[in-house]
Q: What sequence folds into this?
């Protein structure tokens, strides 16, 4: 609040961490924070100090409530100062925090930036896979699941099921847990990223991050059923997997898809047909580029493109999805790992995670080496350099050990699919019990 000279220069976030950090961990300190802020605001005639005091109290009311014994005094303090711009908002936040779980971490920089501008509305940019973004209002007590519902509603999606919020930092893409508060999740990730960067680079660091909204679980996805989801999410998320050569496809299918992708790129501009040889990397899977000569690709793609003459770009994107949907690898997440368990398998294998379970694939021949449904997995774990799983029973199961830096992603994805199936089974049991009654 600036009433006493600071011993050293600190950022506003350092100050709020110092004030609220211990209280988010220890409930017994929360009343002390409320008392100290209100005490310092009593008979305080310094406008600058009071402005900061109200900002601190606003943050405090959104993080955790005071105890029942202090609650009446806090409410009276706020009600007696109703003329203050932030007083009624503090009261609302206080009422809200009484109904919610307390926050686990101190305020995020975004919250601090907003209140320092005396803005009680907080907005955050959310990116989508089709290279667009939108700004959404996110409150102090907004949970990830609330934000998912809000985004789905605004985008007019048929369902929010299977979608997730992701945070991308300089070296990781992390999926956020539905039940967590948005700003607690952000704080946790940016703090962890700061810590690892500080160790690596030395000295204080600034962490850049982006928030994405994407499909995570590919179930109940039928191309053409929800065009908005197809165009914004399914097409841009499936296209890179196709071009990396993860699917098994015939020459005829590849020519048809290449013509669709060409139409998506140039629409009805036939003058661009001459550029097909230069565009092949954007039209044909990487491992199939040499299946025909450039001229043959051009000739066959041109013929297929002419057959699709009446198609729009949007229709071509849905047609691409319908073509890929026929393959068992549609909607899979693919991971290249080094395995050290199976002598019969190559050292490097490709693991595909889908709603069916885990499929181990030969990366060159694309032959399926093994299928493991989720109910065959006894357990799994991951670290910064590995992913391990036990197939069969815990006692007599077979261990499958992998070296990978993406173990955390595999772990999270498998856990999410298993949780989804358990939730579905529980819901079905509840429905059956009601029916029996």
A:
């Amino acid at each position: 609040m600036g009433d006493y000279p600071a011993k050293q220069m600190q950022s506003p976030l350092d100050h709020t961490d110092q004030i609220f950090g211990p209280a988010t961990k220890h409930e017994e300190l929360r009343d002390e924070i409320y008392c100290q802020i209100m005490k310092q605001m009593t008979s305080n005639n310094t406008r600058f100090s009071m402005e900061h005091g109200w900002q601190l109290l606003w943050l405090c009311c959104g993080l955790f409530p005071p105890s029942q014994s202090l609650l009446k005094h806090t409410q009276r303090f706020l009600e007696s100062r109703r003329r203050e711009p932030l007083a009624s908002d503090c009261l609302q936040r206080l009422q809200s925090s009484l109904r919610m779980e307390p926050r686990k971490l101190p305020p995020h920089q975004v919250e601090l930036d907003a209140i320092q501008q005396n803005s009680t509305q907080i907005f955050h940019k959310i990116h989508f896979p089709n290279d667009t973004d939108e700004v959404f209002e996110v409150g102090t007590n907004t949970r990830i699941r609330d934000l998912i519902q809000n985004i789905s509603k605004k985008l007019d999606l048929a369902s929010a099921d299977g979608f997730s919020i992701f945070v991308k930092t300089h070296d990781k893409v992390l999926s956020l847990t539905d039940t967590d508060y948005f700003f607690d999740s952000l704080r946790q990730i940016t703090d962890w990223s700061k810590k690892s960067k500080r160790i690596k680079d030395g000295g204080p660091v600034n962490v850049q991050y982006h928030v994405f909204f994407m499909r995570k679980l590919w179930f109940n996805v039928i191309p053409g059923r929800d065009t908005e989801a197809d165009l914004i999410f399914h097409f841009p998320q499936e296209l890179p997997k196709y071009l990396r050569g993860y699917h098994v496809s015939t020459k005829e299918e590849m020519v048809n898809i290449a013509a669709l992708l060409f139409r998506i790129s140039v629409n009805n501009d036939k003058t661009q047909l001459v550029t097909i040889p230069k565009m092949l990397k954007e039209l044909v899977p990487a491992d199939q580029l040499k299946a025909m000569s450039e001229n043959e690709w051009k000739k066959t793609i041109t013929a297929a493109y002419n057959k699709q003459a009446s198609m729009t770009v949007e229709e071509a994107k849905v047609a691409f999805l319908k073509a890929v949907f026929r393959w068992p690898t549609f909607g899979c997440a693919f991971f290249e790992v080094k395995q050290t368990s199976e002598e019969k398998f190559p050292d490097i294998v490709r693991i595909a995670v889908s709603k069916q379970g885990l499929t181990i694939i030969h990366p060159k021949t694309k032959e399926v080496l093994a299928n493991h449904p989720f109910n065959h997995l006894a357990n799994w774990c991951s670290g910064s350099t590995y992913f391990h799983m036990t197939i069969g029973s815990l006692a007599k199961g077979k261990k499958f050990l992998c070296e990978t830096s993406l173990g955390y992603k595999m772990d999270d994805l498998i856990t999410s699919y298993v949780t989804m199936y358990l939730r579905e089974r529980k819901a079905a049991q509840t429905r059956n019990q009601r029916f029996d009654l």
